[in-house]
Batch of 3 targets.
Target 1
Amino acid sequence: MKELSHIRRKLGDENPFRVPDGYFDNFATQLMDKLPERAPVSIQKGGVAISPIRRWLYAAACFCVVLVGATAYFINHPLGASDEASSEPHHLSISASELYEQEFADYAMMDNADIYAFLTDTSYE
Amino acid sequence: MADDRKIMHMLACPETQRKGFELVVRQYSEQLYWQVRRIVLCHEDANDVLQNTFIKAWNHLDSFRKDSKLSTWLYRIAVNESLDFVRRQKAMPSVSADDEASVANMLLADPYFDGDETQAQLQAAMAKLPDVQRTVFNLRYFEGMKYSEMSRVLNTSEGALKASYHIAVKKISEYFDTHD
């Protein structure tokens, strides 16, 4: 970049800023004197530190949750009852279908004789 | 100079944490100071900002994620502290941090500024750049920082940083053209 070369020629290499003598040598000591005491916290990869005891506690808690959940599931859904359970929705759907046909017939004010007559009517053939 | 891994190990252990942090301060204070100084210009202000940077780093040590570089994290705190300082200064009605002449005069009166009038005016012109542009220019031109690292320090895309640098270079070059 032409402008960059221009700047380098003008700015040169010298740093116009300076510091008091011994500034950097004394800075760390002076700063550490000012640092407050803090509750030491372990720094680990990924952020928050977890002590080994807590890890075991968390694992035990997860195991208990799984155990209780599995127990509750099998109490409500005992093994061997699956055939009846699976047939229930089918039975219900048939009943619903029958109910629908009854309601439709009532709405249309049709009886079985009318329906049969319609179905056997040859005028549309 | 202490190895970063050794420092990280010391910081991770509560018993050696304070000693480890002292090593961090000794290792990075000069590098960070110059970055801060180029933004705030005055030595006393730079000293205050640098101290605040390390105090903040100490107080937030537990938020430092070991999978990023220590220098990147420190630079980010230093840049934010510097820019906050400059913005507070601009908000003060008695201090005109933008006025080129007053900035140049302030620098010439500063016992810790060795430049001549041209240098003072140049620094004043750079102080007029938008804060982020000036920071990008300082990091790239004086520190030689890679755009990839700068992106992590400033939390900005590399493309935006390159554009900022290009614009800053043009403006400074134009300043030289008009003041030659």
Target 2
Amino acid sequence: MQTTRFRSRSARALADMHYGPNMTPMVDVVMVILVFFMASAAILGPEWFVPTRLPRESARAADESNPPLRVALGLRADDAGSRVTLDGREVGGLADAEAALRGVTQGRETGNVVILISADARVAYEDVVRLHALCLRLGFTKVGLTE
Amino acid sequence: MVLIVFYLIVGNLAAQRELPMPLPRSDAGATSSERGVVIGVRRDDIGGLRVTLDDQDIPVADLAGRLRAALPELDVGEQTRAVSLRADRTLAYGDLLPVVQACREAGLSSLHLVAAKEER
């Protein structure tokens, strides 16, 4: 009968029945490496950034047949937060800026608009980034920072 | 085994070499796993500013020169390597202006403003 023959073997005989290298430690190591990579990927992650341009005076658009619309956005520090000006005209806070920007660029394809953001020295950096993010969200890719 | 995992993770975190700094929040942006050259601007203990280029403290006046020196590897034509600006959210724009101008002087045409992702 099968079982008695199996049980009749000694422990040593059973141990000698393993063939080839023992796989268990290798699986352990692979698991550790997997955990390490998962942890580092989750902790570091890709960086989130706002891409901006740095326009220079000499860099004027060469395409005269379809000149891009240039919008100058300014930020002014105020007690109630930052005030946005569009082409010199005061527009209000960030929420109003979105409406004003949409109005000015109506009909224009978003790739053909150049927006230059300038701000007072006392404006919080975060507000500048928020305004920039607003422009990006509306689809404008050519947004730059100037003084 | 657990100790090895622990050391690997802690070593990775330590290798970030940066103090936690509040980044400006943004709801729009892009992601990239390439950090490129990192310009850090953060507050000093005494209330001044510390500007670091790839984790080396440098005075702002030198920034343009150092960036220009690093330009050949940045390959400025289409700027294949990213230059990131990690600045404290609470800084005033006036503090960052010299840094941005230094970048412009060095010939950079674009910059990555590192931000913290915020859902709208």
Target 3
Amino acid sequence: MKIGPAGDIQFDNEAEIPRTGRSLGTMAWNRTGSWRNIEPLYRDLTSPCVNACPAGNEVSGWLGLAAQGRFAEAVELLRTTNPFPAVCGRVCPHPCERACLRDRHGGPISVARVERFLGDWAIEHDVPVDAEPPNGRRVAIVGAGPAGLSAAFQLGRRGFDVTVFDENPKPGGLLRYGIPEFRLPKRVLDAELRVFDSLPVRFECGTRVDLRDLPRFERVILAIGRYRGRDLGVPGEERAIQGIEFLRKGADVGPRVAVIGGGSTAFDCARTLKRLGKDPVILYRRSEKEMPAFAHDVEEAFEEGIELRTMTVPVEILPHAIRCARTAPGAKPIPGSEFLLRVDAVIKAVGEVVDGELPEGVPACGDCAGGAGTVSDAIGRGRAMAVEIAARPPVATAESLNPAWIPSRPRPTFPRVSATARVLGFTEVNPDVPADLVIGEAKRCLSCGTCSFCHTCMNLCPDGAIRFTGSEYEIDYAWCKGCLICVQECPRGAMTAREVTNEKSPQR
Amino acid sequence: MKKVLSGNEAVAWAAARARAEVICVYPITPQTTIIEEISNLAAKGVFDPRILHVESEHSAMAGCIGAAYAGVRAFTATSSQGLALMHELLHWAAGGRLPIVMADVNRAMAPGWSIWTDQQDSLSQRDTGWMQFYCESNQEVFDTVIQAYRISEQVLIPCMVVLDAFVLSHTSEAVEIEDEELVRRYLPPFQPEARIDVNDPCSFGALLRPSVYQVVRKKLQDDMDRAIDVARAADEEWRKLTGRGYGLVERYRCEGAETLFVTTSTVASTARDVIDRMPGVGLVKLRLFRPFPYEEIRRALAPAKRVVIFDRNLSYGHHGIFAQEIKSALYSLPKRPEISCYSGGLGGREIGPDAIRAMIETAPKGEWAWV
């Protein structure tokens, strides 16, 4: 018995062949792979929770890590999209849970609980932030709300030098000045803001910034949110307080308070009033189902005994009362349905708009730029802005070029049909021009900032430490002593320099 | 000890005495009381098998095959549609050389739907490589199941023990149940020639090139040939221990008989009464069908002038299966008897003494006739 050339067993005689069919060798020689005309391959699908998250959190990813007790890694993964799990675990309505496919197998995962746990755990264990070394590129962010903070975090992690301006005394935006303590304790927000301690991010609060004062920054991002409350458009409304202002600084009001609106601001106001010993009633012009407030906030409000009157709209605000009307579906007031509601104060919380006009040409993110009005949405948009900025290298300027390598060659004038001839008809003003004239223009391009393989760096390196592979240049750092002649001479600024830390030194 | 048992109960007792270790169970009329009785016996502690409830007869045979590869004694029971469902795995059990014993309660194949006896189901599996014994009484059933393990484990070929639906399966007679000690002496523990062992991994039944496949199959055929003598010896040994033996082909009142009536199963039992009243007529009962006992059949039938063969089965487009095989065995005789072939009794239709007498007394025109 021996192994044949194909790998199969070859028997010398019939007696060697076992009658029981027991194998005597391997079948690996039979490459059944040659039979296929269709084949499997690994490719992931997006988990519906990840898809539903406005911040793009890798929910299924960090749930898996948390399930294995790998909390630090879960936090690290969380932070790639969201630096504030302790905050979001408390205030986000978690659309991921509504998308969860476990709903028909026992109920959706309590993602909020896990996220909150991981956030609190990260704070308690002071999990360090995974960050790249500083790259010296400066970015200014105006607005220290969730969008601005998210952008600052993602840029800071990538080594950017970020300054965040905010007119309020402390950072946080709506997280601090809008969402009440019973939904988000300030100590949690302050603890989570410490992620910035290890990053090249600084805050300048209590400052209203003028964009003209910011030329030293490579980029400026606006993230100023929506802080101007909408008006009701009814007589006497100057007697009503804006909900968003009430949440920021409170107000001295009598016991019976009407809160107009059906969103988060309205409910936060009503529940805060209750806790201050007041007797709030929420008036909303449409049906309960149509209220924009989060379902769990509404549920909790009912448990707290908050009064809600739907299909009710204010018509006039009087010194100690509101005249209201009942509405039909579609929020149309029903004629003849008016009634008087005795109140000591009125709070209006019917939506917010951007305060003032945004300057043109300045990138903006979050609620001030069409955001959905939730914390997770703002975080997602802030991050998207940061990633977009980080993806692009700095813009080449005149200082990037080395003019010694740029012979001046004039831009040609392209012929036009003479004015007297062309007004006689409708033929094109600009005729076709010869190809070589046009290609000559293409050749004049300096390729600012982008390597065009001119070999200048390679030819000038005194140690011959640069070589061309056929598709790119390689620097042999075993020989490069850092004279930076290549950087200086590169005609188009496609090289830069960086500090060498001990870890990077090849001598080590 | 003597007990009044149905054929199915006798099967169960035999499986218990043979100490079958893995029994895969799936019900079908009229076999179900076999597995019910096995469960009773196990529950009472008569023996201690691992009983696997499976979802079909195909799985029942698969389970037995797995158990046999693991080196334990396996048993199952089935009938008609269930046996048909196992078909591909019957090939596997035989080709895999696994000494599984199975009771098949002969039941007609649907359609029409019938729960009564004929031999179509077992004979449809004739070519799979299983041994087949056809039994005439509940006592014979008990004895044959035990003999089957002894023969199977020596030649490494699975064995089907066949009994008639209702006529045996659900009819009671006195059966001597030999005690454990005697059966233990007769049937030593199973020693597999090859089995699955995690410490010595291998595969079974893998790809065989054309040059090798026929060699392995020839070994099966060689062992089938050997099995005739092994079966005879096993029956002899059992006769020595218990006083009961049946042979592979039984000759009853054949001396000087010019006409011989050849049949199987319970029709043989009815025929004995008829033959007792017909001088010059003998009964030849075929007990072992696979391997086919050519020599004994030739020896038994050569002296006759006329042979009447009754088949409780039919190969459509041809005639009775036992008849075909017997005729082919007699072909080599220098002087061949006249042969009459009958098929009948399908779907449990009565084959009483009058029918048997009529077959013996009249000859069909042509190759064969219905009765």
